[in-house]
User: Fold this.
Amino acid sequence: MRLFLTGATGLIGRRLVVDRLERGDRVVVLSRDAVRAARLFAADANPNVEVVEGDPTRPGPWQEAINGCDGVIHLAGAGIADRRWTGPYKQELVNSRIESTRLLVQAIQRATKRPRVLLSGSAVGYYGETGERETDESAPRAADPGDFLADLCERWEGEASRAVDLGVRVVALRTGLVLDERGGAYSQLLRPIRLFVGGPIGLGRAFMPWVHHRDVTGLVEMALSRPGVAGPINLASPNPARNRDLMAAIARSHHRPSWLPTPPFALRLVLGELGRYAMMSQHIIPGVAMSQGYGFLFPDIESAAADLAAAWRKRHGSGETTRVIAQINETVNSITPSEPPATGGTGTGRPAGDGAAAAAVTPSARAPDRPRRDRPPARVRLLAIDVDGTLLRSDGGLSQGVIDACRAAVRAGCVVIPATARPPRAMRTILQTLGLSGPTINYNGAVVWNPVEQKPQHHESMDAALASSIIAEARAILPDTIVSVEILDRWFTDRVDARFHTETSRVFDPDYVGPIDSFLDQPITKLMLLEDPGRLSPVLEMIRDRYWRQRRIAMFLTDPHLIQIVSPMVDKSIALQRLAHRLGVSRDEVMTIGDGPNDAGMIEWAGFSVAVENACPLVRDLADVVVPSNDDQGVAKAIHRYVLAPI
Assistant:
């Protein structure tokens, strides 16, 4: 997709830019400072990033850049918690959102090729105080006519909705409290906790509609890719936490107490009118996301806090004492403003990011680079290893040294998990040789398989109706396309062609050969289309244009004659995080080894990651360390050095 993004240099915006680039999209970034934005996103070296200079609140040439884009993500707006709410600043909060949205819709109207979808910022501030009442997107705006944030959200969404008359699908992103280890609310909530003076606001009973930054990008992907999603969607966890529970979870993850409450009067004194919203109880649930079957990566505050703390420690590394002293100075300065409260001053209440949403919003950022480590930060309890090109030699065999090392890791109490594009049936001999009986990640993360019970622990399936639609369109273009589907560990194909019985394509004896339409009434793990590359090319182009660019599917092209299609939420890293959570293993206790682009997610996420010498440049760049190649027992050497050796 080609996406136009405002607010891209804010914390949420930066997260989204990187996420969309990783998904293969082209991103057009609007920024008031093109030089800074180009440097931030390495635009000179990245052909998929285009930076356009302009002020979204003023008409200008930037509006022409929307022409030809497939979608628009509009996050621009002055920061809700950046300053105390004086009269002029409240007007800036309004103008920066309403006027920019009006000009954006105006640009869409003028475009000869209009975007299909507009995702426009909003916030859970729309609902106002909800108390104990569970509230989803069907609820009306806050009843209080004098509620500034509710009024702002309503007007903001109203401006965006004018694009509906232009044939554009409009989604209002009602964002909650975004938690991210790189800044925003998490940093402000964490500061007093790290100083041993953290605690709830008052009695801590108020509900806080929090959301992990990884689920923000996931929910945005859902909103972009699913045509049935329109209108407001709540970007919030399905399990809102009370303030005291949220603070306690963050404190526990940093081995700190949560004991010193912030008196409500102090919050009002420091924040003024904004303090009212910091104490508001909002029991918000993501009704649309749940009805769409979105699988939250972090559905509860405990798992989210643990992940954020692990990432925070990985990011900050050493020098803790110096940083704590700096935090003390920052805290003292924030409590003692250098100018009168009427015109400045900051507080440590419930913060709200860069203006991407109008209430409890904390945008998050993900820098293109990542800190490296030379050792695992904790004892490795979970080891995920890619199979082809990493665990196996280039000839497809297992080295005795690798076999011995994997068995030794298991004896030492480490769970060893192969993570592969292969189906479960193609892993049986490998598991027996290695002596592994634990779960495996198959189909690049579509299935987490229990090899003992021969059943899935998790299945990220593809909708059968969608698979049927792709098959019908492919057959319309190329009637003799070979069509196969895999459903968990079973393979069904309409016919077998000896031309494609190669080791590379991983073809095994099918469970069924014949018409497969009768099997398309159930969730599909993987759809495969086979033909000679020259004849398959128009089918590939159709799938790219109608399905892949719409983010309705993910696609793997491992062989020129084979198109493999899976759910867009399939990724080894997502499956690995599910397993780690299920096993009670923290991110710092996870190590990964890989070589190919489909390993990049788990290499980046793990507490410690290893690339073999033969890995692609992307994986080598993301990994903490590089070991010898798969033909030189790189996996064995990594296990002995980082899993079996004392920390």
Q: What stands out?
A: Residues 2-335 form a domain with the Rossmann fold fold (CATH 3.40.50.720). The first strand starts at residue 2 and ends at 6. The chain has a mean pLDDT of 85.
